[in-house]
Amino acid sequence: MAKVLVVDDERSMREFLEIFLVKKGHEVALAANGKEAIELFTEEEFDLVLTDLRMPEVDGITVLQEVKRLWPDTQVIMVTAFSTTETAIEAMKLGAYDYLAKPFKVNEAGVIVDKALEKRELVLDNLRLKREVAGKFSFENLIGKSEKMQEIYRTIRQIADTRTNVLIGGESGTGKELVARALHYNSSRATQPFVVINCGAIPDNLMESELFGYVKGSFTGAVADKKGLFETASGGSFFLDEIGELSLHLQVKLLRALQERKVKRVGGVSEIDVNVRIIAATNKNLEDEIRKGNFRDDLYFRINVIQITLPSLRERAADIPLLAHHFLTRYSEELGRRIMGFDREAMALMRSYDYPGNVRELENVVQRAVAFEQTEWITARSLPSRLRGPRTERTDPGVIPDPGENFSMDNFVEQVEQKLLTQALFQSSGNVTDAAKRLGISFRAMRYKLSKYGIRKGDFE
Question: Which of 166, 176, 215, 235 is most exposed by smallest CB count within 10 Å?
Answer without folding.
Answer: 235
